[in-house]
Amino acid sequence: MTRKFKALVLGASGLVGKALVNQLCRDDRYAQVTCLVRTPLQQRDYYDPEGKIQAIVIDFDYLQDFQGYFSVDHVYCCLGTTIKQAGSQSAFRRVDFQFVHVAAQLTRGQRAKSFVWISSVGANAKSKNFYLRVKGELENAILSMPQLDNAAAVRPSLLIGERAETRFAENMGISFAKFLSPIMRGPLAKYRPVSAAQVARQMIELQVFEKTEH
């Protein structure tokens, strides 16, 4: 019998998180998908005929108190916000750096097999852009973490999909980038807008699956 896997998802109610959870529910390799969320999930957003989803509402400021949920095979971190949503640079950093970094530490502590999170195209710890600098600093912090061998980041450009909230500037950027996509080739290809479903698929592909059967 092929071994079944257990996944933990942080940020399951976001654009990529929804796409990811739905893909995991359809993936025969997974038996359970635990979601740590700030607010209850809306069942209409998820296709879960086999009852794989276990949603746990938590306060992410106390994420370490929920370390037991990290005793899974794969941890997916889709946490993220914008400076506008967060209200300040420090509040943004708290979500996009601190929460994700703690999640990686708990993954290591509970010996999960792999950790995949969402970064950004252009992430660079030396960038003058605050957003890209934070993303780059986080990449450096997680990828240099000892005893966390199977960690990987996806680096999407602008995300395409239906959000619960309206982001006017981002929508304008996506529209402009879509217009330019046909000529965005070679080194520029990575800046093309990408769908949430594509990012979710890439996250799953980056996880470590054992080939053993029992």
Description:
This protein has 6 helices and 8 strands. A 6-stranded parallel sheet has the order 3-2-1-4-5-6, with helices on both faces. With about 210 residues, the chain is of the alpha/beta class. Residues about 175-180 have low confidence and may be disordered. It is globular. The chain has helices at about 15-25, 85, 90-110, 130-145, 170-180, 195-205; strands spanning about 5-10, 30-35, 55, 75, 115-120, 150-155, 160, 195. Helix 1 packs across helix 6 (about 195-205) and helix 3 packs parallel to helix 4 (about 130-145). It is about 35% helix and about 15% strand. The chain has one domain: Rossmann fold, CATH 3.40.50.
Main attributes?
six-stranded parallel β-sheet; Rossmann fold; 35% helix; two-stranded parallel sheet; alpha/beta; 6 helices; 214 residues; 17% strand
Short description:
By secondary structure, the chain is of the alpha/beta class.
Topology:
Blueprint: E1 5-10, H1 15-26, E2 30-37, E3 53-57, E4 74-77, H2 83-86, H3 89-109, E5 114-118, H4 130-143, E6 151-154, E7 159-160, H5 168-180, E8 194-195, H6 196-205
Parallel strand pairs: 1-2, 1-4, 2-3, 4-5, 5-6, 7-8
Helix pairs in contact: 1-6, 3-4
Q: What is CATH's topology name?
A: Rossmann fold
Number of domains: 1
Query: If you average the pLDDT, what whole number results?
Result: 87
| Structural class based on helices, strands and sheet pairing | alpha/beta
Low-confidence stretches: 176-180
Q: What is the level-2 CATH architecture name?
A: 3-Layer(aba) Sandwich
Tell me the span between the first and last alpha carbons: 5 Å
Helical amount among residues, as a percent range? 25-40%
Number of helices: 6
Strand order of the largest sheet: 3-2-1-4-5-6
CATH homologous superfamily placement: NAD(P)-binding Rossmann-like Domain
User: In total, how many beta strands?
Assistant: 8
What are the secondary-structure elements, in order, as H or E? Answer: EHEEEHHEHEEHEH
Radius of gyration: 17 Å
Largest sheet: 6 strands, parallel
Tell me, what's the shape?
globular
**DSSP strand content:** 15-25%
